[in-house]
Amino acid sequence: MTDRPIDFEENRYANVTNGPRRLRPAVLWLGVLGLVILFIPLTFMSILLSNQADRLASEVESLQTLVESGQGLPQEQVLSVTLTAVSQQTDQMTQILPTLAAENVDWAAIMPLINNVDADAIRISSLEQVGNQLFIRGRAANDDTVTQYAQQLESSGQFAQVVVQTIVPLPEPFLSPTPTVVQSTAVPPTTTPTSTPTSTPKPTSVPMATWTPTPKLTDDYEWDDTTPKPIFLGTPSQLHNFYPNFDVDHVTFLAKMGRSYEISTDFLAPGVDTLLTVTVGDTTLTNDDAALGLLSSSVIMQAPADSDVEVLVQVSNRGVYGADKWYDLLVEEVIPTTPTATQTPTTAVPTVTPSATADLRDIYEPNDIDPNPIAVGETQIHNFYPSGDVDKVEILVKNGRFYQILTSQLAVGVDTAVTVDFNGESWQNDDYDLPGSDNFASAVCFPAEVDGTAVATISNVGQQFAPSKTYIVTVQEVPFLTVDPEALDFGTLIEASGNPPSQTLQIEGSEPLDWAVMTETTWLSTDIVTGTTPTTLTITADISGLAVGLHKGEITLGWADFCRQTIPVTLQIDPVVSFDFNGRSLFAAKAALFQDEAVEFVIAV
């Protein structure tokens, strides 16, 4: 070691010379690592390309196999099926094309032909197309005009066939037809004067529905038709009613040996006529009327002297049934009166006083020939007894009013029929209800066109006669209903042709009346079944399936509960005959000629 001074410049150059030698191995390792990183994705890409090449080779092989076998490609098979379906649809459309073309009416060509008419002799009202057929409806001055019009259409060559379906005479002349008012659905504007203020009503609240209990209409002792209820002596009477129809009341009490009792009815409501049947052991006692002029009943009985006994009392009604048909039933103990012996001369011949025979007829008999009066608003109870009994009643009626005679509350076996005769006219009814209703009551409503006396005859179609065959007859004034016209005629139609035009009824009432319509004629129908007067009712006739000949039907209007009015309907079906128009066939209905009358017609082309 020398004491030479340090040369800093030399050391600096020495460090620079040794630096690159130390970094060279690190650079080499970085290069190797980069090559490795680059090689990995190249390897994956190589594997992926190899797999895709194998898959494509497999698909090419399968396609070559299909081509060699002659089956064709899958896309080709799908396209072949689609092409076949389209071809079949095209064939179907080709087949129906003539039909569609036939139904396509050339309106531009035929409308001038249809409208080529003399307006003073014929008028077209409507055209209707059904399939490939047109229906021309209109009015003409006479049937010759219709025939000439049909010939004109036939000779045009535009129609394969011309058929005159109907020719119906009209009551009014052609030159003064009744104009048809077409009601618009639009509401016309209403002009409100500005000087008069209008107020908008406030909405009213709708009350909530409340539950109302069903009132009890029977008496407090029901049901006692088969199970008797006890009645006690010395207590207030029991209050019973005869409800529902054919109600029978039963009571029972204990009668002590040797004592006497009176069973009686009293305070009968109008229309009640009691009949008592008292059973004491094997003994039966009955009473209808306690005295002449009374409808209440009374029975006095005595219990056996050696034992107490249970007494059964039955109370039936020979009068009217209803919730207001009340009566009192009372049982009292009575002291039998001991008759005082009367000295009778031995020379005197004892006189036998016959007991009166009960008259089981109603109180209005005899009225088979001479009718008994009945007032408007009055109700009478009659029976059909004796055998063959017929009841007649007479009513004073006034001009311009409408009356109803009604039977009701018919006993079993009673089937009334009512006939009213007045002012040379007659009205009849057997059953006002429909068949199957088990209601055999009758009702006749009739107008009075003059003051006078109408007579109603009431008979029993059931032909059962007995004191128990009762019924009620009532007369009352009711609002009346009128129809215009009172009969309908659809005229003469060709066999198997179209239906005739609908007809209308104008229904009016003396006041707004609710009405209902019904019919049992299968070829008739109405546009509505109920309404309120005034109303227009449309009636349609369907002639499909009807045979050649005259057909009669009817529709019935009902109002005021039991009033009925029947409107007869007629329709004539004639066979088809042919006429020769210019050498071509024209079919028309065989109908009478109405040379001077306006007609309504239907022509099918």
TrEMBL record:
This is BACON domain-containing protein. It comes from hydrothermal vent metagenome. The keyword Membrane applies. The chain crosses the membrane at residues 27-49. Keywords: Membrane, Transmembrane, Transmembrane helix. InterPro entries: PilN. Residues 179-207 have a biased composition (Low complexity). Residues 179-220 are annotated as: Disordered.
